[in-house]
Design goal:
The complex is a heterodimer of chains A (396) and B (327). Chain A is α+β, with helices and mostly antiparallel strands and 396 residues long. Chain A is built from nine helices and 20 strands. Chain B contains 15 helices and two strands. The chains are: A alpha+beta (396), B mainly alpha (327). Bound molecules: adenosine-5'-triphosphate and magnesium ion.
């Protein structure tokens, strides 16, 4: 807090999207794509900055690939405009764009060996022969395939093919690299390793990456920012922490991680403290949570808390400021590094009044003790508590 | 070695029923362990009876001497006056083929006509196959049907139809004279042009269908990848599409080239006496000259000429059929 100004400029250098004056590198303005009368992408506005690793996240069929294909030039938007580095690219054919794509299926040329595949784009640019050889060798050693130049694609493993595809897209040093589910075909261990390789590469080369994925963990790990898509629309854009901690809607909250929710009604809104008080049937007294700008007193609202933000203890917590509930452990899943508990809270409050007991709350807790010394077991009576400002208000 | 005990005597029940049972068991064991061989044997047997045996008969005739008798050639194996078995092999017929300018000329002409026709079929067939593959699925089936449709009428009838079209008083000449472009009929029929037209017309589907089968398997994202890497559509065609359709081109070219070389009906009906092709010579030796041995030698020589492209075709076919390459 001492050097506020320099910290602020640093923040803008690393996170240009926070700076209103920063110039976006890629601008997608009012873009829609219709196939017949089906709308695959609807009215998308998106600014992406130079050097970002930007993820498009969403369920199957939500239009991620279509949006990426419009950036690559394989589809033209039905309406809207796309500019890259201040040049209008809306109608430009793929071979005239400063953009390269790594295909989900890799699309390696089966009749060419690895080196020729990688050299293909350079040959099209009429790069001198010796420079082609040098750059191909360089990029192949970067992806650790220097020994494999003479192999044909069908003689490679899946992971090796994927690295050839990456090398082929990167060797032209494009301004933007588009990756459609780059890691989908890899097993979990290789996927994690490759994620870090991708991030390293991106940092070293300074190329702007746009990555399509439907794996929320992958998006969390990789990205500077995430755009969540649903039914052709972008429903939230933000940094991974922001999208995870402050999802705008129940849908986003459920799509990224798990969530516990409580129905309630807003009692008071305190503009100065940036808080509002919410009364829920599940709690004895109203809870103070961070304020959402457009909510007013008297309105219905949903309180949400992530499972890992909940503390669990056998004794009642001391701190009176914590939101608290009491209940019984009804399910317990041991995951190795952590455990997932399902706790049925007392009373018949919450979402329904059907007389079968209270809500089931999911809690995850790190396994601080070995499993045989675990101090909370099935059927134990426990207290659940959390700091109210860790919870947030959800809209539907 | 000690004498073996007589087991049959020890177990008198092992009678006929037992033998039958044993035989059945043996047979089913054999069938189980040799099932693969048995199934493979069937096509080989077919080839042996209907291909190899006739081939050896023709080969035998080609090594005989022409006689005015029935059959009109000397036997390969005969009993000499005494008691010795005599085998007579005569290479005169083959020597004759090489000596006579006419035969060599005819072979070369056949190869020229089939080569040019194959190239023409490729030049016409490739864009057609490409257009069919790129057509919307509904139109694709109709277009394919149109390619196959001519096979539903007799080949001979279709060639005769061309006579009606190309003749001096045929459709084309009548039309041209009616419009006043010409006042004398142009010679179209009984020319090399008519033969080319007939061959290209008849064999075009054999070019288009393997090309279509090959192109249909091509992954469209490969073209997109090329375009993405900066290739102009024409460059994409020559660096990606064309090399990947070579198997289709080879298959189509050989399916046209091999039968076109030995083609008899088209040069006979559309070429008249003006176009020399080996199929016609063969027919003449056989029917007009009744010289079976020379005719057989012509056939064997044609086979030898075509063995190379046939083996090439085999080679590409087996590569196509490799696991993983086939969808
Ligand atoms: N060429 C096309 N013609 C008609 N509909 C299309 C076409 N391409 C895509 N669509 C439709 O547009 C929608 C979005 O497709 P898209 O491929 O962008 O989904 P996605 O988000 O990439 O999904 P996934 O995660 O399954 O890859 C889908 O419903 C799809 O059926
Ligand atoms: Mg997709």
């Amino acid at each position: 807090m001492t050097s506020a100004t320099s910290a602020a400029t640093d923040v803008y250098l690393e996170r240009p999207w926070l700076d209103a004056a920063a110039e976006p590198f890629i601008r997608i303005q009012g873009v829609s794509k219709r196939f017949g009368d089906f709308t695959a992408v609807e009215n998308v506005d998106l600014d992406i900055y130079r050097g970002e690793l930007f993820s498009l996240l969403g369920g199957s069929g939500c239009g991620k690939t279509t949006l990426l294909r419009m950036l690559a030039g394989f589809e033209t938007p039905t309406v809207g405009r796309i500019t890259i580095d201040n040049a209008d690219m809306t109608e430009a054919p793929p071979y005239q764009r400063p953009v390269n794509m790594m295909f989900q299926s890799y699309a390696l040329f089966p009749h060419m060996n690895v080196a020729d595949n990688v050299a293909y784009g350079l040959k099209r640019d009429r790069v001198p022969k010796n420079e082609i050889a040098r750059r191909v060798a360089e990029i192949l050693s970067m992806v650790e395939l220097q020994e494999f130049g003479k192999r044909k694609p069908h003689q490679l493993s899946g992971g090796q093919r994927q690295r050839v595809a990456l090398a082929r897209a990167l060797v032209k040093q494009p301004k933007v690299l588009l990756l459609d589910e780059p890691l989908a075909a890899l097993d979990k261990r290789l996927r994690e390793q490759t994620q870090f390789e991708l991030m390293n590469l991106q940092e070293r080369l300074g190329v702007t990456f746009i990555v399509v994925t439907h794996d929320q963990e992958e998006a969390m790990t990789l990205s500077t920012r995430i755009a969540v898509m649903d039914a052709g629309r972008i429903i939230q854009v933000g940094e991974p922490g922001e999208v995870y901690e402050r999802p705008k809607t129940r849908k986003i909250a459920n799509f990224i991680g798990s969530i516990n929710t409580f129905d309630g009604r807003i009692v008071t809104v305190d503009g100065d403290a940036g808080e509002l008080a919410l009364s829920c049937p599940a709690f004895s007294s109203p809870l103070k949570v961070p304020r959402e700008a457009d909510l007013k007193a008297g309105q219905k609202a949903t309180l949400a808390i992530r499972p890992e933000k909940i503390m669990m203890s056998k004794d009642a917590p001391e701190d009176r400021a914590l939101a608290r509930l009491q209940g019984e452990v009804v399910e317990l899943a041991y995951m190795g590094n952590l455990s997932i508990y399902r706790v049925q809270v007392d009373g018949d409050g919450g979402d329904n009044n059907d007389g079968d007991g209270g809500d089931i709350i999911q809690v995850t807790a790190p396994n601080l003790q070995r499993v045989d010394r675990r101090n909370i077991e099935w059927d134990d009576r426990v207290w659940l508590s959390w700091r109210p400002d860790n919870s947030f208000i959800l809209r539907d | 070695m000690p004498p073996r005990p007589d087991t049959a005597g020890l177990f008198p029940r092992a009678g006929a029923a037992q033998a039958w049972h044993n035989w059945r068991r043996h047979f089913s064991d054999f069938a189980q362990t040799h099932w693969r061989e048995l199934t493979i044997a069937v096509p080989y047997l077919w080839l042996l009876v209907f291909f190899l045996v006739p081939f050896f008969i023709v080969l035998k005739i080609s090594l005989a001497e022409s006689l005015i008798a029935s059959p009109p050639f000397s036997p390969l194996i005969e009993w000499a006056e005494g008691e010795a078995l005599r085998i007579r092999i005569i290479f005169d017929n083959f020597a004759w083929l090489l000596e006579d300018e006419l035969y060599v000329q005819t072979y070369l002409n056949s190869l020229k006509i089939s080569t040019v026709s194959t190239v023409l079929c490729l030049l016409i067939g490739y864009p057609i196959a490409y257009a069919i593959v790129r057509a919307p699925p509904g139109a694709r089936h109709i277009l394919l049907l149109l390619i196959i449709l001519p096979f539903w009428t007799s080949f001979l009838l279709r060639v005769y139809a061309w006579i009606g079209i190309l003749a001096d008083r045929g459709t084309i000449n009548n039309f041209l004279m009616w419009t006043g472009v010409i006042d004398q009929p142009v010679r179209l029929l009984y020319s090399e042009f008519a033969v080319y037209l007939g061959i290209v017309y008849s064999y075009l589907p054999f070019m288009i269908l393997p090309l279509y089968a090959n192109m249909e398997k091509l992954d469209a994202t490969l073209r997109e990848a090329a375009s993405d890497l900066g290739a102009h559509p024409a460059t994409t065609f020559f660096t990606v599409t064309l090399p990947l359709t070579v198997p289709g081109i080879v298959a189509g070219a050989l399916l046209v080239f091999i039968p076109a070389t030995g083609e008899f009906v088209i040069p006979d009906l559309l070429g008249g006496g003006n176009v020399l092709m080996i199929g016609k010579v063969l027919y003449g030796e056989f029917n007009a000259n009744h010289d079976w041995p020379v005719a057989a030698a012509v056939a064997i020589a044609l086979l030898v000429v075509l063995v190379a492209p046939m083996m090439l075709y085999q080679h590409f076919q087996s590569r196509e059929m490799e696991p993983g390459k086939w969808r």
